[in-house]
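TICKET: design request
STATUS: open
ATTACHED STRUCTURE:
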């Protein structure tokens, strides 16, 4: 298990629904992403959908509610056992595994068709990991199969830089590209983007960052002072609160088809 997952396992499992201000258990936040998955699944009729870094299976719960056909196998792949332990729905198969090394043959037989989904995981790949992780995912797909994902992605390069510097100052090896860079990474991996759109950001609340990443009050105070200067013209990214600050982690949904 990677260090970036290990350092967060204290908020995994039962506590996860309250993490990130409840974003990952909020149906409203997931609505447009779930609609996009359903639209693609209706068209390509996969025999198996794999949720890479699917955590507690929340997105599959939403797909089941939205009427994903009974004959579609739903596999949550995650490196955190604490997250997988929460998946109790008999329709969902939890499987321990990593985005960067999962094998199609371990998940399904040679005849079925696979669709990949993934929400808020690519940032764990860090600055050097997104290219190889995406190539690996593509290598497990057949041409014509789909990958629908909601990934950390800012509209502009300044937004990405502010967030990446914030991660660096907190000692967190996550990395988020801006839209142009992520489009390039996806295309280079052999994925054609047929549609993409922004979805609500997750609010990173300073008190929660302190607990989640073990950032000291002194370091957090210094980070806040820096952000007050560098983000003074970015109310879309940064706001001051009575207890500290909120930084918006931006997302974009990409509908991608595996091409030659
Ligand atoms: C922010 S959470 C999102 C959970 C879920 N996708 C959702 O949207 O509700 C990130 C999840 O990715 C998992 N994860 C991070 N890096 C991973 C990797 N390399 N392989 C598999 N799972 C990973 C973590 O354990 C965690 O459950």
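STATUS: resolved
RESOLUTION: sequence designed for all positions
ATTACHED SEQUENCE:
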């Amino acid at each position: 298990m990677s260090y970036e997952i290990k350092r967060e396992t204290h908020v995994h499992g039962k506590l996860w629904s309250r993490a990130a201000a409840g974003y990952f258990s909020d149906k409203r936040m997931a609505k447009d992403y779930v609609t996009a998955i359903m639209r693609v699944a209706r068209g390509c009729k996969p025999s198996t959908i794999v949720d890479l870094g699917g955590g507690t299976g929340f997105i599959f719960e939403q797909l089941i509610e939205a009427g994903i056909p009974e004959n579609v196998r739903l596999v949550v792949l995650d490196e955190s056992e604490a997250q997988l332990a929460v998946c109790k729905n008999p329709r969902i198969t939890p499987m321990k595994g990593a985005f960067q090394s999962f094998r199609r043959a371990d998940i399904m037989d040679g005849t079925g068709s696979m669709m990949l989904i993934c929400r808020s995981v690519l940032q764990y790949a860090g600055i050097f990991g997104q290219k190889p992780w995406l190539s690996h995912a593509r290598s497990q797909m057949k041409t014509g199969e789909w990958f629908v994902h909601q990934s950390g992605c800012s509209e502009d390069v300044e937004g990405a830089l502010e967030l990446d510097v914030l991660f660096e100052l907190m000692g967190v090896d996550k990395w988020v590209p801006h839209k142009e860079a992520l489009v390039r990474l996806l295309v280079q991996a052999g994925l054609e983007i047929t549609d993409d759109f922004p979805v609500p950001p997750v609010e990173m609340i300073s008190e929660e960052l302190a607990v989640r990443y073990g950032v000291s009050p002194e370091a957090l105070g210094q980070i806040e002072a820096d952000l007050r200067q560098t983000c003074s013209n970015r109310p879309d990214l940064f706001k001051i609160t009575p207890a500290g600050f909120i930084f918006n982690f931006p997302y974009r949904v990409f509908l991608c088809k595996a091409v030659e």
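CLOSING REMARK: Residues 106 and 141 are 13 Å apart (CA to CA). Residues 2, 5, 24, 53-55, 58-59, 78-80, 83, 98-100, 119-121, 124 surround S-adenosylmethionine (CB under 6 Å).
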